[in-house]
Design a protein that fits this description.
Number of domains: 2
CATH topology of the largest domain: PX Domain
CATH superfamily of the largest domain: Phox-like domain
Order of helices and strands: EEEEEEEHHEEEEHEEEEEHHHHEHHHHH
Low-confidence stretches: 61-90, 92-212
Number of strands: 17
Radius of gyration: 29 Å
Shape: globular
CATH architecture of the largest domain: 2-Layer Sandwich
Distance between the termini: 83 Å
Number of helices: 12
Mean pLDDT: 77
Oligomer: single chain
C-alpha cells in the first residue's frame, strides 16, 4: 500500500466518512478507486476515511520524518511539477493564506465549510459532442473568488461516446471560501488564475506607490479599461430607497423537477439528471449538478465583487443516490435557481440565459460556454459595464451607510445562526424526545386503566374507559409531535439557511466598497501633496462612486426581498404552530368532557 504526506489542512465531514488532518501527516492509501479525485486511507493513529487526492503527495524517505516546512524554512531543492498544476505554481504557505484571505482588513478570514472540499456530483446533459466541447483552456480574468476553470475531462465525458479516461484531481475551494471573496489576480489571457497578496507598483502621475493589488483596486486606480458593448451595460437607477438595479423587463422563474438516476458506459458512470423549466420559455432542459456548479463559478467570477451570488448546496460523495437526499437536493437547487432568477442583473445575463435555455443545439451550447469563460468584464471589469446616476455621492455619508450595512448584516447573520441552532434542536426533539415522552405518558395512562378494569363494580367502569381514552389521546398527540417539524421548523430552517448563505457573501461585497473608499482617501492625500493631479484624483472619485452605487443597489435589492421573504416565513411558521397546538387542545378538551360527566 502507498503512503502519502498531506500538504494542507483538511477539515473533512466525519459524518460522511471523511478524514481530518493537518499538513505534514502521513496517510496509508487503501483505495484509489473512489472516484472524482478522492482516495481512501488511514492515518497512523488508525483513523480511516476519504480524503482529496490533490491534498497529498507521495511519501519519500525524508518526508516520512519531516513535517510541513514554511517556505522560509524549506530545504532548497528543485521543485517537482505536479501534473495537476501544469504552471508549476507552488501552493501558498499557511502564513501566506492567513494574510491573503483577509484582503480587506476586516479582521477575519474565510473558513472552510463543514462539508469539506468535495467534487461535483455526476449529473447529466442533453447533448452529444466531441471532447473538445469542455476542454478549452479558460481565460484568466480578475475576479473576487478563487474560482479555477476546470481543464480536466470531467466535462468532456458529457459529450463523448468513449469510455471515461483517468482524470487529473481537482478539488475546488469550498463555497464558503468562494462566496466570502478571496481575490485572484489576472496576468493575461491563458494565464493561470491564482490567489495573490504580493505588492505591485502602481503609478499615479509622477508618484510611485506600493499597493496591494486587488480587482477593485485595479478598477479604482484606472487599470481596468474595457470596451463593453451597449447591449451588455447594466443600469443603476435612483429609487425611493436609494440606488436600485433596473428591473428585468421580462422577469421569469424556474422549476427544478423530475430528478432521475441515469448511467452510461454500461453502468460505469451514474449520475442524477434534473429537469429545469424556465417560465418564459416553458421549454425543459436537463442539467447535472456539475452544470449548476459551473454556473455558480461563472457568476461569482463575473459579479461577485458587488452582487450576492448565493452558495450552492454542499457537494456530497456518500449517500448521494438515496431518495431523501435526491429530493432534498432538488428542493435546494430550485430555491437557489429561483433566487438567481429574481436578481434583475443576473437574470438578464448571457451566462444565466444560456444555462436555462440551451438545449439541443450543440454549436450554440459550445459558443455560449466559451463566451462566458472568455468574458473579460468580470471582477473589477464588471464596474466598467455600469451606468450610474449623474448625482454625485457624498463619500462621508457613504461611509456611514456602509458601517450601518456592515452592522446589520453581521447582526442578522448571527441571529440567523442562533435560530438555526435552536430550530435544528427542536426539529430533532419533536420526533424523538417530545414524541417519545408524550406517548410514554399515554401508555402509562392506558396501563392505569387496565389496572382499574380489575374492579368489576359498575361505578368504576366509566373511569376506566376515560383513562384508556386518555392514553389513546396522548399517544395520538405524540404522533402529532413526530410529524410537526415538516410543517413549521423545516420550512423555516430552509429559509434561514438560504439567507445564511446569502449573508456570507456580504463581508466581501461591503469590504470592496470600504477598500475603494480607503483608496480614495489615500489618493486625496497624495493630491494634497501634489503627487497626483486633480484630474487623476477626480477619476478615482468617479470610479469609487460606481462601486458605491453598485454596492448600495445590491444592498437595497437584498433588503427589498428580505422583508417579503421573512413576512412569508414567519406567517407560515406561526400559523402552523397555531394549528398544531389547536389540534392538541381539541383532543384534550374532548377528553376533559369525559371526566366532567363523571363529576355529575
Amino acid at each position: 500500500m502507498d503512503t502519502v504526506v498531506t500538504l494542507y489542512e483538511f477539515e473533512g465531514d466525519v459524518n460522511n466518512g471523511e478524514l481530518c488532518f493537518g499538513p505534514g501527516e502521513r496517510i496509508t492509501v487503501t483505495n484509489k478507486d473512489v472516484g472524482e479525485g478522492w482516495w481512501e486511507g488511514h492515518k497512523d493513529d488508525g483513523t480511516s476515511g476519504l480524503f482529496p487526492e490533490s491534498y497529498v503527495e507521495p511519501s519519500t524517505s525524508n518526508e516520512a520524518t519531516n513535517s510541513y516546512y514554511p517556505p522560509e524554512q524549506a530545504p532548497q531543492s528543485a521543485p517537482t511539477l505536479d501534473p495537476s498544476d501544469p504552471f508549476g505554481i507552488p501552493p501558498p504557505a499557511p502564513s501566506e493564506l492567513s494574510d491573503m484571505d483577509d484582503i480587506f482588513g476586516l479582521g477575519f478570514a474565510p473558513q472552510p465549510s463543514s462539508g469539506g472540499n468535495k467534487l461535483s456530483d455526476d449529473v447529466t446533459s442533453p447533448f452529444t459532442a466531441d471532447e473538445e466541447s469542455w476542454e478549452e483552456p479558460p481565460v484568466a480574468v480578475e475576479a473576487t473568488a478563487p474560482v479555477e476553470q476546470s481543464t480536466n475531462n470531467d466535462w468532456a465525458d458529457d459529450w463523448s461516446n468513449q469510455a471515461p479516461q483517468q482524470q487529473q484531481p481537482n478539488v475546488s475551494p469550498t463555497h464558503s471560501q468562494i462566496s466570502q471573496g478571496s481575490v485572484v489576480n489576472s496576468t493575461g489571457l491563458g494565464s493561470p488564475v491564482k490567489r495573490t497578496d504580493r505588492k505591485t507598483t502602481v503609478k499615479l502621475g509622477n508618484f510611485i506607490s506600493s499597493l496591494t493589488k486587488t480587482a477593485v483596486e485595479s478598477f479604482v486606480l484606472g487599470e481596468t479599461n474595457l470596451e463593453v458593448p451597449a447591449s451588455s451595460m447594466v443600469q443603476v437607477i435612483s429609487g425611493l430607497d436609494g440606488p436600485m438595479w433596473e428591473n428585468n423587463p421580462h422577469p421569469f422563474t424556474c422549476t427544478v423537477t423530475n430528478p432521475v438516476k441515469e448511467s452510461k458506459f454500461s453502468g460505469l458512470k451514474s449520475f442524477i439528471a434534473y429537469t429545469i423549466t424556465p417560465s418564459h420559455t416553458s421549454v425543459a432542459v436537463l442539467r447535472r449538478f456539475k452544470h449548476f456548479d459551473w454556473l455558480y463559478e461563472q457568476l461569482v467570477r463575473k459579479y461577485g465583487v458587488s452582487i450576492s451570488v448565493p452558495q450552492l448546496p454542499d457537494k456530497q460523495i456518500t449517500g448521494r443516490y438515496e431518495d431523501d437526499f435526491i429530493e432534498g437536493r432538488r428542493v435546494q437547487l430550485q430555491t437557489w435557481l429561483c433566487r438567481i432568477a429574481l436578481h434583475p442583473v443576473i437574470s438578464c445575463s448571457d451566462v444565466f440565459g444560456h444555462f436555462v435555455t440551451s438545449k439541443d443545439d450543440e454549436k450554440a451550447w459550445k459558443q455560449g460556454k466559451r463566451k462566458a469563460e472568455k468574458d473579460e468584464a468580470v471582477g473589477g471589469g464588471f464596474f466598467q459595464a455600469l451606468n450610474t446616476p449623474d448625482q454625485k455621492i457624498d463619500f462621508t455619508i457613504a461611509e456611514q451607510t456602509l458601517d450601518t450595512h456592515s452592522k446589520f448584516t453581521r447582526g442578522m447573520d448571527e441571529a440567523c445562526k442562533q435560530l438555526i441552532v435552536v430550530g435544528q434542536d427542536q426539529a430533532k426533539k419533536f420526533p424523538q424526545v417530545y414524541k417519545k415522552d408524550t406517548q410514554r405518558l399515554g401508555q402509562l395512562f392506558s396501563t392505569l386503566g387496565e389496572c382499574f378494569e380489575l374492579d368489576n363494580r359498575p361505578v368504576s367502569a366509566p373511569l376506566t374507559e376515560a383513562l384508556k381514552h386518555t392514553g389513546e389521546v396522548y399517544e395520538a398527540v405524540g404522533e402529532l409531535y413526530g410529524e410537526q417539524p415538516k410543517y413549521d421548523w423545516n420550512p423555516l430552517l430552509e429559509g434561514l439557511n438560504e439567507y445564511h448563505g446569502v449573508l456570507a457573501t456580504f463581508p466581501a461585497i461591503l469590504g470592496n466598497q470600504r477598500n475603494a473608499l480607503d483608496k480614495l482617501k489615500e489618493v486625496r492625500r497624495l493630491q494634497l501633496e501634489n503627487k497626483v493631479t486633480v484630474d487623476e484624483m477626480e477619476d478615482v472619485a468617479t470610479r469609487t462612486e460606481k462601486i458605491s452605487y453598485a454596492v448600495e443597489a445590491e444592498v437595497n435589492h437584498f433588503q427589498h426581498y428580505r422583508v417579503g421573504d421573512f413576512v412569508g416565513y414567519m406567517k407560515d411558521f406561526v400559523q402552523q404552530q397555531i394549528s398544531f397546538h389547536q389540534e392538541i387542545v381539541k383532543k384534550l378538551q374532548d377528553t376533559a368532557v369525559l371526566y366532567e360527566e363523571l363529576m355529575q
